[in-house]
Structures are given as C-alpha cells and as structure tokens.
Prior knowledge:
The chain is an all-alpha fold. Helices cover 57% and strands 0% of the residues. It contains 6 helices and no strands. The protein has helices at residues 11-24, 40-43, 50-59, 66-83, 87-106, 121-136. α4 (66-83) packs across α6 (121-136) and α5 (87-106) runs antiparallel to α6 (121-136). The longest helix has 20 residues, at 87-106. The model has no long low-confidence stretch (mean pLDDT 84).
Amino acid sequence: MTERKPPGVPFESWVDKQIRDAQGRGEFDRLPGAGAPLPAEIESTYDELWWVRRKMVREGLAVLPPTLALRKEAEDALAAAYAAPPERIARKIIEDVNVRIKDMMFKPPPGPPLGKKPYDVEEVVREWRQRRSAAEGNPPGPAA
C-alpha cells in the first residue's frame, strides 16, 4: 500500500519525491510502450466517443457515408459480375446495383456526391463474355 502524505508537506513535493524514489528503484524501466510514440487518439483533442472508435478499429468495422458505401458496393458488384459463373447471374448483380445507384442519384443523402452512374448492363455482359472466353481460351460467342 502506498504511504500517505505526511501532514504539513506540500502535496507537489510529496508526489515529486514519490516519483523520484520509484525512478531510483527502477519501477519505470522496461514499461510496455516505452520509447514508442503515443497513439494518435491520445495526441488529438478529447473525443467523448474515443472508446467507440477504438472498439470499431479492433473489430475491423468502418462506417462510411451512404454514398461512399454505395460506391464501394458498386465496385464490388462489378467485380462479382465479372466473376459470376452464368451470364444471368452477372446480369442480375448489375441490375440490382443499378437500382440502388439510381435511387441514390434521385434521392441523394447528405455527404459527398455519389460520383457513379448506372452501369450499362449490356456492356458489362459483353466484357463478362470476353473475360470468360479469354479464361477458357475460346473465342467470344452468343449469350448462354
């Protein structure tokens, strides 16, 4: 148990003495993180939701504005369409994301602009066919 501050001794000098004594005993040597920079959240101004942000980083979560989330979703949908086995699934993926893009274009939420327009389904399917035939070593043919 730590000793109590003796009466009549100024608090600051008593604390300073406790710290000097602990340093002399080596209690501050080899502490975890010694010599490392402070984490960014400690260096910045106080944020009452610091614990939420830290938890989200630990859990690998991110919250994007709706337009940025849809941009990411559209890019992922395009990649998924190109990788889809049958053409009808590639079409369905692009048609579904186009509906969400059109909704966002006509009812924009707050935040940065979407910066996306609906994909040309026929162009995506044409590209899908070319990629598929190149992967299989066949010339592009009609829809399956």
